[in-house]
Amino acid sequence: MTRSSGRASVPGPGRLGLVEPPAGTWLDALGWCTDEHGPLLWALSRSADPDLALRNLVRMAESAGEGWAELDERLRTDTSLRGRLLGVLGASEALGDHLVATPASWRLLTRSGPLPTPAELTAGLLASVGAEPEPGTELHRATTTGPGATLVLRQAYRDQLLLLAACDLAATVEDEPVLPYVEVAAHLSELAGAALTAALAVAVAEVSPDAPVTARLAVIAMGKCGARELNYVSDVDVVFVAEPAEAEATRLAGAVMRIAGAALFEVDANLRPEGRSGALVRTLESHLAYYRRWARTWEFQALLKARPLAGDLELGWQYLHAVAPMVWAASEREDFVPEVQRMRRRVEDSVPAEMRERELKLGWGGLRDVEFAVQLLQLVHGHDDDALHVASTVDALGALSHGGYVGRDDAANLTASYEFLRLLEHRLQLQKLRRTHTLPDPADTAAVRWLARAAHVRPDGHADAAGVLTAELRRNTHRVRRLHEKLFYRPLLDAVAGGEGLALHLSEDSARRQLAALGYRSPETALQHLRALTNGAARRYRVQAVLLPTMLDWLSGTPDPDGGLLAYRRLSESLGDAAWFLRAMRDEPAVAQRLMRVLGTSVYATELLLRAPEVVRQLGDTASGPRLVQTGPQEVALGLCASSSRHPEPERAVAAARGLRRHELARVASADLLGMLDVQDVCAALSSVWSAVLDAAVGAVARAVDGGAPGRLAVIGMGRLGGAELGYGSDADVLFVCDPAEGVAENDAVRWATTVAERARRLLGAASVDPPLEVDTGLRPEGRSGPMVRTLTAYEAYYAQWAQPWEVQALLRARPVAGDPGLGERFTALADGVRYPEGGIGPDAVREIRRIKARVDAERLPRGADPATHTKLGRGGLADVEWTAQLLQLRHAWRVPQLRTTSTVEALTAAGAAELLSAADAETLTEAWLTATRARNALVLVRGTSTDQLPAPGRLLTAVAHAASWPGGDGGAFLDHYLKVTRRARAVAERTFGS
Fold this sequence. Notes:
Layout: H1 23-30, H2 38-46, H3 50-64, H4 68-77, H5 79-91, H6 93-101, H7 118-128, E1 132-133, E2 140-141, H8 146-169, H9 181-207, E3 216-221, H10 223-226, E4 236-243, H11 247-263, E5 267-268, E6 281-282, H12 284-293, H13 297-303, E7 307-311, H14 313-328, H15 336-349, H16 367-381, H17 393-402, H18 408-432, H19 445-454, H20 465-497, H21 508-517, H22 523-534, H23 539-556, H24 561-575, H25 579-587, H26 589-599, H27 603-611, E8 621-622, E9 625-626, H28 633-645, H29 650-673, H30 679-704, E10 711-717, H31 719-722, E11 732-740, H32 746-764, E12 775-776, E13 789-791, H33 792-801, H34 805-810, E14 815-819, H35 821-835, H36 843-859, H37 878-892, H38 904-913, H39 919-943, H40 955-963, H41 971-993
Helix pairs in contact: 1-3, 2-5, 3-5, 3-6, 5-8, 7-8, 7-9, 8-9, 8-11, 9-11, 12-14, 16-17, 16-20, 16-21, 17-18, 18-20, 19-20, 20-21, 20-22, 20-23, 21-22, 22-24, 23-26, 24-26, 24-27, 27-29, 28-29, 28-30, 29-30, 30-32, 33-35, 37-38, 37-41, 38-39, 39-40, 39-41, 40-41
């Protein structure tokens, strides 16, 4: 080509956005180096990826041969063609390949007027396989089958995708009209219907080549195709209905899926009754029988988007009309709320944390958030409002807004954000015609810039397109998440406000129905709480009205939103106008979210927080992490003892200790519920605070007894206190040991120590609204018939002459916890000689311990308790594990020093290391102990009272699973895990304990 003298005025590759080294050579090859090509070069520079567009143009020129001159001429004069072609070539590698492979396809882009109608699409796809109507049916029969049909179907379908994508992308290059998202999605859905109609025509010819088809087969679109909101690349979800549902119909359905999968897109029939394991084709009556008896809530939610797509449309509409009443009654099902919550958690948990910012569909503030919220509102209110019986998300938002269920501004903003996210999804899929919802890595600036330009993000001034897109994406995802929370609860607050001129008109009946669907078992009571929190003139009521939509959303994800809302009201009213509380709720989202989780899960923690509200401040974070876990047990113990020692009267000293204990229990319980402490940390913290309270009480009483102290007194922790394994509902098992001062008679010292011990026990055990402080001395020598306090010498004499095997076993957990530390250490030395005897305990003692254990198994389990799920005395529970560990200690600790520990877990670890247990058995017993302890603690947290029996499946078990931080709060899965772990532990215990 001869170059004109105007070449110098043509911008160089760099100014055109071309960065690949061969760009100049490519331009020369096309002859685009003259002034007359200036408009083309300008258009090229506006494409999403000018290098990709130019490379594709060169390939097209090579494949078109002599036909390139015609295209080149048309591009210079036809701005519509220019915008469409360069828009596609710069945004889609896959469609560029299609244009190179079929050079004449560019002529499709010269079409003027609107896109093809559904009828035109169907006629074109049917014509591609030479299909003719099948007499007496709504079906067609193709004349082209096999690989030939696959080839022509793929060509025809890609041509129509090319035309749509070109019209969709033209505005990114030239000043062409922007094609609305809803029009694009609807056209893709109609194209899918046309394609499946053609695939069905091929299936008819292949399944029944020589005879008419007798079966009526309807293809029901589900999901995005059913809602006319399909993506460029997506599976098409379908359900097949046939009359009769015999072999012919099944072969037809299978052939449709096979043909479409090879030529067009994947056809997914997994939304059919029973999913993958169910029959591919059913009659209408068989479908209805399944939905009446077996269908789960998610299946009715899926049917919201069902519509007849292909095949026998009359049968398809019969199906739709028959299932519709069941769809709109789904919100009244007993399991509606827990199933909806499980579905939502499953979606949120399915995305790895590191990908949530990049997931358009399932990530935080993504498409599924919008779709889930809209569908839930449709199900809740659609029973009484036929206007909500629409399939597409955008149409449903409009109907919800018109009906007063969603604010007009909220609906408009949510629609805009939804369409923006869907636009990005379309552009990502167009690039390689692959199904994806994942945004580029933010570090890949080139990929982000390409997406911005493909999505027609045009920054003002010198702003960078990638930066503008990133900011716009962040704004929209935050808006979606905020509106997702507001969508459900702002109308509820407006409904109870009772003001005039509100934008919403949600009736109280609708408000109650919506609350019930969100998990509130007593919607009327919940509305009363909302009125009490928001209806007032003071500033705090206005602040609460702003905060509550988000907090109610968080509460709805807890096991007991009713109890949580009541607790929040009580807490708010008790604090009144306390500025710090509402400021924390408003300015620290972590505080509010964590508080809602605690209040909606645990009666135990809630009651403590109501009496120690200052702990709410600790629910937030600092630069070094959550405040709840920044205080160690030793620091807490020192503070508690120091505070109580400032009071001369024992009653006031113990009251001060109780107050700090209340604060500490609230802190530990909250951290436990929020998954910030593991079970051993919880037990250690609870044991430490118990020890500190004992120390404070004994010290206060000892200081107050007239006549001074005639000796020293130490408190020895036994049982779970000695092992630092206390749970929320545990008593404190202790021994009291005294030692007379020099020159003091032993009897005088014992009398004084007994007075101190009994008074301290009485003060600690006094009636209180706090969790009880029961001190149990039943493990002392001679049990309850023996003296409460003995001297160290008396203990030594008793154990040397009279100790029973159970008393030796009890000493395995003896540890000084309060009082005189020196005396405590001397008692420990004495106990070591008894509990770790040279050569271990003898055969008679082993037999006696086994006999006692058998008696415990036979007699101690409460009447009516389930031995499979009793956490303490049940099969494989705490008793089984602890007795096994203790028998190993009694027999082998004399020669294995690592077994000399009061901790069950440490003893099991040492037994495994010493090969007294296999590594697998040690791990099994440890896991069972941790699982049973976690379950036992969770029971107290949920119910507020001490109990050892896991409940049957239901709301209470779900709450226990939540409190135990079980993934997803799935009570059934939690119980299955507990049974599996304890069953294995029981087998190990029986094998080890009896050997």
